[in-house]
């Protein structure tokens, strides 16, 4: 998440007392079409929350330039790192069920051959991973199928000391969770969130209820399909979803559904300071970025799978929120403008 993206989220989500609307107001299709043209992004799907309930879905543009298929409410996008909060929720469900101990070292029951520093590895806990405090890098084998990766994963900092955003950490936790439960990520997702997100998946096959999009670097690009989606899911980045489905998940989290009150509070408690990422104090809870706005709290996450860019977030005190999914590499700039339109 960039500094301007987080700042921009305030324009749609802050209440009228701070100079904006009392709930998220989505642009109409005509305004979205103009924005897509200006930023050379084929398509966008947006959904809003009002008082923790899904309110509205707006779509515009093209899902597949080769067939001129328009973006529809059933259009599926790569969620990129919006996968992480969904996986974090599953881990917290397992903690409530007594299957996972958030503060017990993984090494007590699980060996991970890609981390040669066994002393540092012995200190890693699920909580460190979910709050990005493992000291592990984001990616070592970026651009490859993670499950086929063999490169050693070094530490960039001591575990538990500093914020280090890490996709590798989330993949480590996925391997641990699958080992502990005997279930794949996809099975755990279907078991615990299948009714909340019926049109979403971490792994192939794509649900028959959705229409796939293609992601593009620019209008001259041939694009790519949902190629991050493979037969085995990736906790850090492989979720494919619709705007409505992710908004239902965001609503689920906003309402505190499915978790014990203590775990819900733990999830949204700032635990890992990440100063410098936004123009206001920012930390990470368990799987979520937490922005302190001085009396109001932004709970959110961004997503970047190159040709697919995304954002989701809500205000904890008001329950107003937004989901934005795009299928263009310039989607980040588009999202920032949608969240914080230029001053008139």
From TrEMBL:
Residues 1-20 form the signal peptide. Keywords: Signal. InterPro entries: Beta-lactam-related (IPR001466), Beta-lactam/transpept-like (IPR012338), Diverse_Enzym_Activities (IPR050789). Pfam families: Beta-lactamase. Gene3D superfamilies: DD-peptidase/beta-lactamase superfamily (3.40.710.10). The keyword Glycoprotein does not apply. Residues 42-331 form the Beta-lactamase-related domain. SUPFAM superfamilies: beta-lactamase/transpeptidase-like. The keyword Signal applies. This is Beta-lactamase family protein. It comes from Pontivivens ytuae.
